[in-house]
Amino acid sequence: MDRHSSIREGHGQTWAKAILLGEHSVVYGHPAVAVPLQDLRMRATASPTSGPSVLSSLDYSGPLEQAGARFASVARAFEVAREFSGRLDQSFEITTVSDFPHERGLGSSAAAAGAIIRAVLDACGRQAGPDDLFALTQMAEQIAHGKPSGLDAAATCSPCPIRFQGGQMRPLSQRIENAFLIIADSGVHGSTREAVGGLRQRYESDPDNIGPRISRLGTLTQRAITALDRADAPALGAAMDEAHTVLAELSLSLPVLDVLTEAARGAGALGAKLTGGGLGGCVIALVTGEPAAHRVRAALEQAGAAATWRHRMRLSEVDE
């Protein structure tokens, strides 16, 4: 790249993700399946400016260096993107606009970092391959999560579901036609750190009780992978239902999450469960067909969901 080439307004886009099955058990060596939610987008714009760099994101608008700890991963994403582009001396106005809320287990920190990185690279005319983009996003995620698995960084830009196990990721086939996930926000901020730490303590103090349940979650995840590949929507829904029951037995659900899952099933969902760390956050429900999607979404709103979204699951064919 010509170091003196002109800088333009750059744009970047990523999306939300939901853990379909395997949250928590993935920490103990079992697989997890993450689904990219391409309908819920995170967009970023990077406009060159001559003054200090400015950020407009969520409820903050002001100098980037004064944005505080809440935006530390965003600031890191901006820094690594400029460094990769060879433009550390260039200031930008950075704006993010999201279709989905933060701190709900939908991957907002990785999505924001990835979108900003892409916007800055676009502004600088710098090309980057998938491996570079993943590595840059992981640098920002280390600020947000300490030792991120990489699942969010991969899923928030993946075109298809991802299987994650032992630090390794691979794409999965999704052959269920006309399938939708209805996502419902409980309105309660979940703490993944608290949920994971609490389960670890319970496991260490009572392994004979907790261990088999964690293993059951792993088995259900394998069942979900097969159901996606075989286009077996009822089997996937049944695995989701049982996974929620096990997560509740592990003290990772809340009454509001149980109410929402029951409302979804009562309206015809094939399966429903909490997604992510639990103790708040979101519920996901599987349906097939537009009428069922509309009916389940309405039921979740009537049951008290703070917000709902509909995501059509894209078909994907992966060579094994």
Q: How much helical structure, as a percent, in the residues?
A: 40-55%
* Count of spatially separate domains: 2
Helix/strand order: EEEEHEHHHEEEHHHHEEHE
Mean of all residue-level pLDDT scores = 93
Biggest sheet record = 7 strands, mixed
Protein name: Mevalonate kinase
Keywords: ATP-binding, Cytoplasm, Kinase, Lipid biosynthesis, Lipid metabolism, Magnesium, Nucleotide-binding, Transferase
GO molecular function: ATP binding; mevalonate kinase activity
InterPro entries: GHMP_kinase_C_dom (IPR013750), GHMP_kinase_C_sf (IPR036554), GHMP_kinase_N_dom (IPR006204), Mev_gal_kin (IPR006205), Ribosomal_Su5_D2-typ_SF (IPR020568), Ribsml_uS5_D2-typ_fold_subgr (IPR014721)
Can you put this structure into words, describing what you see?
41% of the residues lie in helices and 25% in strands. Helix 6 (207-230) packs antiparallel against helix 7. It folds into two domains: 10-171, Ribosomal Protein S5, domain 2, CATH 3.30.230.10; 179-312, GHMP kinase, C-terminal domain (Alpha-Beta Plaits), CATH 3.30.70.890. It has helices spanning 72-85, 108-124, 130-145, 151-155, 192-205, 207-230, 233-249, 255-266, 290-302, and strands at residues 10-21, 32-49, 54-57, 60-63, 91-98, 162-165, 168-171, 179-185, 271-275, 282-288, 307-312. Strand 6 and strand 7 (168-171) form a beta hairpin. The strands form two sheets. Strands 1, 2, 3, 4, 5, 6 and 7 form a seven-stranded mixed sheet that branches. By secondary structure, the chain is an alpha+beta fold. The protein has nine helices and eleven strands.
